[in-house]
Design a protein that fits this description.
single chain, 387 residues, alpha+beta, Pdz3 Domain, two-stranded antiparallel sheet, 13 helices, elongated
């Protein structure tokens, strides 16, 4: 067993297997969203594929749709009747040759609102998946809750400079109510060097203090380094009100929505800081980084890996809504143009947009892959062979 375990780690399977587990679930539900909406709108679906390339497994359902698993499990697609390729590109000239009955089976000739629903259904499915996962975890396993009462203040920390005291109960941060210490931690860690207003209860008296969390470099148990915000407070484990809370399904679903919204919100916050030059673009990661995180998270147990699946599902859904041609958001932009001006954007303009979108996606892929390889010190190792 030890030999198998060593082989599993040495070949990189400890990263690859969890990564494929997470990616397959996220991609499957994304494409399932497109598939379900298309079926409901009367669009004929020819292929539903998880993975690209030659099929390693394939079968047909009663509607004639080919379900397949491609040998390259790094994505997926749904191909509709009339599409020229897996990217759902349509040829207007070829479409014009179809008879009325065949046109009714294509996405191309569906009403604008139906086409928009089919395109948006993929990202929506990702958000629904994330909410369901979060809600299930909150209702079945519950959440470890600690009241946000300060038990320890680190000397010379942001908390001490800002006037916080032991025994203070944090009620809100920047106008947003907090009821647990984990909510305080999450709010602080993503706001390094950002002025925050803390509303606290000190012996029955409400006070408001403006405090800027320090920016510190933190190393996790796997050796990954992160720049985060730190206030310099902790709870008193012997006095803190620590409890495990399970939530009813309705509350759990709402908490799942809030968790998903938080991920979306913080994504835009980080992107905004990168654009403004307040955050390094080196923090962006790609497939290699996701694979590494998946493998590391898997060592913490199945629950942690499922939670990561929910987080990535939100991220994939959000990214696909970006207004970049080739992505779902790009198609929605074309549909918005059609809705505003009463006619589709010209085929030439859409083709140019697709080429620009492809270039942007490829450049982003190269950039994040460079970041991933740099983070793993691959280039230092390569130059070491010649040093």
């Amino acid at each position: 067993m030890e030999i198998i375990s060593n082989l599993y780690s040495a070949t990189g399977l400890s990263y690859i297997v969890p990564f494929l587990f997470v990616l397959t679930i996220v991609v499957f539900f994304h494409e399932l969203g497109h598939f379900y909406a298309a079926r409901r709108c009367g669009v004929r679906v020819e292929v539903f594929s998880v993975g690209f390339g030659r099929a390693v497994a394939s079968w047909y359902d009663k509607h004639g749709t080919q379900w397949k698993i491609g040998w390259l499990p790094l994505g997926g697609y749904v191909k509709f009747f009339g599409d020229e390729n897996e990217a759902s590109a349509s040829n207007p000239e070829a479409m014009a040759q179809l008879d009325d009955a065949a046109r009714g089976d294509t996405l191309f000739y569906k009403p604008l609102w139906q086409r928009a629903i089919v395109v948006a259904a993929g990202p929506i499915a990702n958000f629904i998946l994330a909410i369901v996962i979060f809600a299930s975890l909150y209702s079945v396993l519950g959440q470890r809750v600690t009241d946000p009462m300060i038990g320890v203040i680190v000397e010379e920390s942001a908390a001490e400079r800002g006037g916080l005291q032991v025994g203070d109960l944090i009620k809100a941060i920047d106008g947003s109510e907090v009821s647990t210490f984990s909510e305080v931690r999450r709010k602080v860690t993503v706001n390094a060097n950002v002025l925050l207003e803390f509303e606290i209860d000190r012996g029955g008296e409400t006070l408001r203090l403006n405090i800027t969390p320090d920016r510190v470099l933190e190393t996790d148990r796997f050796g990954n380094e992160y720049n985060i915000g730190r206030l310099g407070i902790a709870v008193n484990a012997t006095e803190a009100n620590v409890r495990q809370v399970r939530y009813n399904p309705f509350t759990a679903v709402w908490m799942g929505v809030e968790e998903s919204y938080f991920i979306v919100e913080q994504t835009f916050v980080v992107l905004g800081r990168i654009i403004m030059g307040r955050e390094s673009a080196e923090s962006l990661g790609g497939p290699i980084r996701i694979a590494q995180l998946s493998g590391q998270t898997a060592t913490l147990g199945l629950v942690a890996l499922i939670n990561l699946t929910a987080v990535l599902s939100v991220s994939i859904g959000l990214i696909n809504l970006f207004p970049i041609p080739m992505l779902d958001g790009g198609h929605l932009v074309f549909y918005a143009y059609e809705g505003i001006f009463g006619k589709p954007m010209s085929a030439k303009a859409q083709d140019v947009g697709m080429r620009i979108g492809l270039s942007m996606v490829l450049m982003l892929f190269v950039f994040v892959t460079w970041n991933d390889l740099s983070r793993l010190n691959v280039f230092d190792r390569i130059t070491g062979f010649f040093g």
